[in-house]
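Please check the following for our workbook:

***
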Amino acid sequence: MHKSGAVMAWNVFKFCRALRGLGSTTILLVLGIVGLTYYAVVINTYWPGLEAGRPEALLSLAVLILFHCLLAMLLWSYFSVVYTEPGIVPPNWRPKVDEERGDTDPLTATEFSADLKNRRIRFCRKCNQLKPPRCHHCSVCGRCVLKMDHHCLWVVNCVGALNYKYFLLFLFYTFLETSLVTLSLLPHFILFFTDDDIPGTLGTLATTFLAFVLNLAFSLSILGFLIMHVSLVTSNTTTIEAYEKTTPKWRYDLGRKRNFEQVFGTDKRYWFIPAYSEEDLRWIPALQGLEYPLKPDLDVQEL
């Protein structure tokens, strides 16, 4: 019985590692949806409306400008998540302070060995290395990730300390873009059911219909996902930590303003782009994924 359970666990992790093979496929799928939407909105619907003398020329211009601006930010955020390392544990990393006890002094060799034995300092048996605070092992990537939130197949990467902001911006701009597409194609979608003589070929009509349905579905699903992550940011919690928390007094909850700054930084000029100012990277250790200040009024014994 024990042996079969071990085999089952091994098969599960084998499947997780196999998910890495979907990488190029999911990227192509995302680009395919973007291409389909671009054809339906720009080439097939609103670009022809720019012709001189048409009454809808001003509306077409406004839709096209907004569509391309949101698309540029969406793709910038998306590929920033894809190609940014989520945060890996530095070689031979050792804790400088005992986060669990709130101790600010460096650990002695004796204290370090005792805390490791008592599991106050976490150790990853798969990576054979120590795990910093808020670090978790990803079975898909096969490595430990700093402040890991989850592994996302859509971005073919883990979402962690160094790319979480980029992931949130990807959700934000995707929601705005899909909502814009849904609203701009809604009148044409209604024509499918109210007008028997719709202009256009069967292929263009099918493309418009499919683009509307896909973008409506994505906008509704991403809205729920976005709301969930906004609540996580305001409480300074990751998706994994939300399921693991056993106490209502979360040690890393510093208040909404400081929690927000630990993800987006303090420089407002960088809040809506997938980048950080050099000053924020220098003065906010949480953006590096290794050091996180604790809630000041939290009783050490409650940790």
Observations:
- Residues 1-15, 98-105, 109-119, 299-303 have pLDDT under 50 and may be disordered.
- The two ends are 37 Å apart (CA to CA).
- Residues 202-234 form the longest helix (33 residues).
